[in-house]
Write a structure and sequence with these properties.
This protein is an alpha+beta fold. It has 2 domains: 78 residues, OB fold (Dihydrolipoamide Acetyltransferase, E2P) (Beta Barrel); 101 residues, no CATH class. 32% of the residues lie in helices and 24% in strands. The strands form 2 sheets. Strands 1-2-3-5-4 form a 5-stranded mixed barrel. A 3-stranded antiparallel sheet has the order 7-6-8, with no helix packed on it. The longest helix is centred in the middle third of the chain and has 17 residues. The chain starts with a strand and ends in a 10-residue tail after the last helix.
């Protein structure tokens, strides 16, 4: 077993037996990890962090070869992000982001870009910077793109030919369909050029861009439908 150190954001925390907890964390160096903290519930003062969800920590853990559950021997709190709890809407949005990360990010596949996106999004929410709708949509699209779950916006998901805005949108199939592949989803709706352009802008932007409020309901619905079909387990709605 090797000893490793990483910066980690706690996604979820579960009781383990009477005194310990297991954690799902997103780390800067190792991707998503599962960890066991022995005695944390019995001796909280033994550690410098209670490893609460949506906190940023530095962890030291023993890397096991026979299991995906690693033993965390030290956890130091770096940023509690306490202002995420200032109102229910902000806390729900932060929890949704953590839930989405835990769902789409594979275990133990390092991806520094995903970690930085998640960390910066939580910090932005904690500071109250930017419009929550724009922050949410930017996080969702960027995360889907970085993790390989993004919808096809430029080519047909069926035959891979280029599709213009005259194509059809199919959440069930994962993006645009051309006329020849419409049989894959006869209920596919006409693609909306403005929504497609906004999705492309969100996927490429380093920071949350301004979004026309008039298209927010349809944009949210497009993403809600897409996540419903593409993810293994249901998530809370994208709308607020």
């Amino acid at each position: 077993m090797g000893v490793q150190t990483a910066e980690a954001i706690v996604l979820r925390r579960y009781p383990f037996r009477e005194t310990s907890v297991t954690l799902s964390c997103l780390t800067d160096r190792f991707g998503k990890l599962k960890g066991l903290v022995k005695g944390l519930r019995a001796q909280p003062n033994r550690y410098r962090s209670a490893m609460e969800p949506l906190t940023i920590n530095r962890v030291v853990f023993y890397e096991t070869r026979t299991s995906q559950l690693h033993l965390i021997s030290q956890c130091d709190l770096l940023d509690p992000l306490g202002t995420l709890q200032r109102d229910l809407e902000t806390m729900q949005l932060a929890a949704f982001c953590a839930n989405l990360v835990d769902t789409v990010v594979p275990i133990e596949e390092p991806h520094a870009g995903v970690y930085q996106l998640f960390k910066h999004t939580l910090e932005r929410l904690a500071l109250g910077a930017g419009d929550p709708s724009s922050v949410r949509l930017h996080f969702v699209i960027r995360l889907l793109r970085l993790s390989g779950f993004h919808p096809q916006l430029n080519e047909c998901v069926g035959c891979r030919t280029a599709v213009s805005a005259a194509g059809r949108w199919s959440a069930k199939e994962g993006g645009l369909l051309c006329g020849s592949c419409l049989h894959e989803d006869p209920r596919a709706e006409p693609a909306n050029p403005e929504i497609l352009d906004t999705l492309k802008t969100l996927s490429e932007a380093a920071q949350p861009p301004a979004i026309d409020e008039a298209i927010l309901p349809r944009l949210n619905q497009r993403l809600t439908d897409f996540l419903h079909w593409r993810l293994d387990r249901p998530l809370r709605t994208l709308t607020t």
